[in-house]
From TrEMBL:
The keyword Disulfide bond does not apply. Keywords: Carbohydrate metabolism, Isomerase, Magnesium, Metal-binding, Phosphoprotein. This is Beta-phosphoglucomutase. Its cofactor is Mg(2+). One of its GO terms (molecular function) is magnesium ion binding. InterPro entries: B-phosphoglucomutase_hydrolase (IPR010976), Beta-PGM (IPR010972), Beta-PGM-like (IPR051600), HAD-like_sf (IPR036412), HAD-SF_hydro_IA (IPR006439), HAD_sf (IPR023214), PGP-like_dom2 (IPR023198). Belongs to the HAD-like hydrolase superfamily. CbbY/CbbZ/Gph/YieH family. The active site is at 8 (nucleophile), 10 (proton donor/acceptor). Binds 2 magnesium ions per subunit. The record marks 115, 146 as: Important for catalytic activity and assists the phosphoryl transfer reaction to Asp8 by balancing charge and orienting the reacting groups.
């Protein structure tokens, strides 16, 4: 039986995927890399440096930049992104997620956050949601990002639960792979998982139990 829930953040709790897209797209186009929907989808859940490399590879210019130049490019994207997320308020929780967090809390589930974002603690504060979570995995401490299982394995450790008692919620392909690799139940939101839900609005314990 499931006792704990590990949450992805961008695209699951917070309506911030659109801000990542805006900031990456602006940087990509300034470097002459053509934006496309597939690239946009593949960037979901991928950490900052891996995202930059994916964009540079899409434009076949990955060898054009030194590590120091890449650091500067990633920092400029993050500066633009931070300006966008500074405007977040509790109204920017994705639809239905506050109710779901309340439902889980009322039913005694333990919750943690498995986000690739170094901005996750700031965003959860802005949304007024920090207190729901036992802890947040620090993505800077990971050896490998999503799709590697490490981040979701760590999210279960934070809950002091064996992975078989944990379900993970994700909106990205890379994240679903990470959850499955960690031997947790994968709940896909707008992406195929062990349980698949079309949007955050559909998420509830009943909707999940109906598919397991
Ligand atoms: P940052 P998630 C991920 O968050 C985003 O989906 C991805 O677009 C972003 O590049 C990554 O975090 C790193 O974010 O630059 O803020 O550290 O979906 O894993 O919650
Ligand atoms: Mg996400």
């Amino acid at each position: 039986d499931i006792k704990g829930v590990a949450f992805d953040m961008d695209g699951v709790i917070a309506d911030t995927a659109k801000f990542h897209t805006m900031a990456w797209r602006q940087l990509a186009e300034s470097l002459g890399v053509t934006w496309n929907p597939e690239l946009q989808e593949n960037l979901k859940g991928i950490g900052r440096m891996d995202s930059l490399n994916m964009i540079l590879e899409a434009g076949d210019i990955v060898d054009k930049y030194s590590d120091a130049q890449k650091e500067a490019l990633a920092t400029s994207k993050n500066d633009a992104y931070k300006e966008l997320i500074a405007t977040l308020t509790p109204d920017d929780n994705l639809p239905g997620m506050k109710n779901f967090l309340d439902e889980l809390q009322e039913n005694g589930y333990q919750m943690s956050v498995a986000s690739a974002s170094k901005n996750a603690p700031f965003i959860l504060e802005r949304l007024g949601l920090t207190s729901y979570f036992v802890g947040i995995v620090d993505p800077a401490s990971l050896h490998a990002g999503k799709p590697d299982p490490e981040i979701f394995a760590r999210a279960a450790e934070i809950l002091d639960l064996d992975p078989q008692y944990v379900m993970g919620l994700e909106d990205s392909e890379a994240g679903i792979q990470s959850i499955r690799g960690a031997n947790e139940l994968a709940i896909g939101i707008g992406v195929t998982g062990d349980v698949t839900l079309a949007s955050t609005q559909e998420v509830s314990l009943a909707a999940i139990k109906a598919q397991v």
